[in-house]
Design a protein that fits this description.
Length: 399
Amino acid sequence: MSHTRARVGFVPTKDYGGGKVKLGQAIAVSGAAASPNMGYHTSTLVSFFLTMFNVRLGWWFSNPSSGARNKERLPSFGFAYLLAELFGLADEKRDYLNVSDGGHFENLGIYELIRRRVRVIIASDGECDPDLQFGSLGNLIRICDTDFGAKIDIDVSSIRKQPDGKSLTHCSVGRIYYSNGSRGWLIYLKSSIVGDEDVSVAQYRETHPTFPHESTADQFFTEDQFESYRRLGRHVVRHAFRGTQLAEYLPNVAERLSETWAPAGFSSTAFLKHTETLNQMWEKFRNSSGALGNLLTELSHNPGRPTTPPPATVPPTPAELCACLELTQLMENVFIDLRLDAFWNHPDNRGWAMLFSGWARSPKFRAAWQDIHRTYGIRFEYFCEERLGLQRERPVARV
């Protein structure tokens, strides 16, 4: 019922329902998957049959905005409320509210936190989602954008099911852009299997292939089933927050986790291939008998420091020009394979970004660029101009 708070008000838990609402009852009601009144899923015909057959897993609680706010949790005369259930007419204007599964509106329980513009939100998604389609997360993103103008930017590709049926990670961290200009973090934990779970969880999955997305129609968990879900949940949290401390400032934790769990936009094979090529090029520089010594000094001088490079006083030698051709070709290969236009700021690409920025400030490399840049792809040229400050030749205007 969290999304109705703006309409019905709020009462401290210890006072609500005469102080007789217990944790177990609240948990049971929160899992009321079938109910005659299910938010915007309510259907008059379905409400009628569910009530007639007493498939009523919700509960009537006193309305905080009415005089019944501190009364007993059930109305003394319930026939009118039974009729409201029967015909799907329950609303927030009565003395008692029909409370059912929050998932009938928003299944992750984040909506009200977005309304309050919370800076860091930790969400645990344990819905039955065997194909990892993230239905609840998608619904949350849509309704928060529609209702509050809050944009949630999160990449869950590393959690999606891989060809072997497993995920790469249990966690993803996204940014929240609130309508007032403030920002927040969403730390999203998903019930998933990576392959690093303990033996008991792995054994249970071997005998129950749909775990951890077994049908919610099963309302009677066995002991080993319950324990497997509990152990998986504990593992997911420990996996996601490893290396953090309880006393740390939570926004700082979220920022660090966003870098740790940022999904790669490229394959590790491509990354390693280009790293090996770079090592071979450095070996060639070392064995050049000093012919490339001046160029190597320029390339390795103050990498990553945003200074304006001086112009080249001496043009590059033929050997230096050939070396710059090889370096530029490596840059283009990395640009294409690792998608640097889209993932320039990705944590895994930080080393390449600093390396290429250092090369682009070498006077000899910049001089060589003016001679060779037309032999490379136009997208790569635009990228080098935007990110590295390597100017491309402008077309001459024709009269």
